[in-house]
């Protein structure tokens, strides 16, 4: 990575961090692109060089999540595919809890209108690892995709409910209970 590439990534990350601080403080709808640019110490044109919109800034979070997940996941050894799957879902849910209900609610609201379909892509690290674990568990290709999608839909559903209920229940524990039911059904 060149110095210029590194600077570009640092600027993009700074914009992202500043935007989310402002979203949390003022609310997504009350933050203007100008506010984000000012907080990040760049011009509005500089912000648009990195992101097309405020929604695009939110979408960047999916890429950073996948990078963090990959970094953590690769350092661990699992005794079984089930353990690997549970670790993936636990990381996803704990990241939501750590991020906070307000920011996750903004992220969910953005998903409805977003043009970026990366979050549902089979190319995401989370999805690839779920499928890899399901393959290790002996499921055929069609079942791998079916179960991975069921797990992801379940996780999204629990996160949505957690947001609607203002974080009033144990997101990690509740989601993992349901994941265990799904895995048991498929004998994983």
UniProtKB/TrEMBL annotation:
DNA-binding region coordinates: 32-51
Ranges where the HTH tetR-type domain occurs: 9-69
The UniProt record lists the keyword DNA-binding: yes
Top-level taxon: Bacteria
Keywords (A to Z) from UniProt: DNA-binding
Protein name: TetR/AcrR family transcriptional regulator
Species this protein is from: Absicoccus intestinalis
């Amino acid at each position: 990575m060149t110095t210029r590439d590194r600077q570009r990534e640092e600027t993009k990350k700074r914009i992202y961090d500043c935007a989310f601080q402002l979203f949390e403080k003022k609310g997504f709808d009350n933050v203007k692109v100008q506010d984000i640019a000012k907080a990040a110490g760049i011009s509005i044109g500089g912000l648009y060089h990195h992101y097309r919109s405020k929604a695009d800034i939110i979408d960047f979070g999916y890429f950073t999540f996948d990078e963090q997940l990959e970094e953590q996941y690769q350092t661990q050894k699992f005794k079984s595919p089930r353990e690997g799957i549970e670790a993936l879902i636990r990381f996803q849910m704990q990241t939501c809890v750590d991020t906070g209900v307000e920011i996750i609610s903004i992220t969910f609201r953005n998903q409805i209108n977003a043009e970026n379909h990366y979050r549902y892509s089979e190319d995401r690290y989370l999805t690839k690892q779920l499928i890899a674990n399901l393959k290790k568990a002996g499921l055929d290709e069609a079942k791998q995709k079916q179960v991975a999608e069921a797990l992801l839909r379940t996780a999204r559903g629990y996160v949505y409910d957690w947001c609607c209920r203002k974080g009033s229940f144990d997101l990690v524990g509740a989601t993992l209970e349901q994941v265990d039911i799904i895995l048991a059904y498929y004998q994983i």
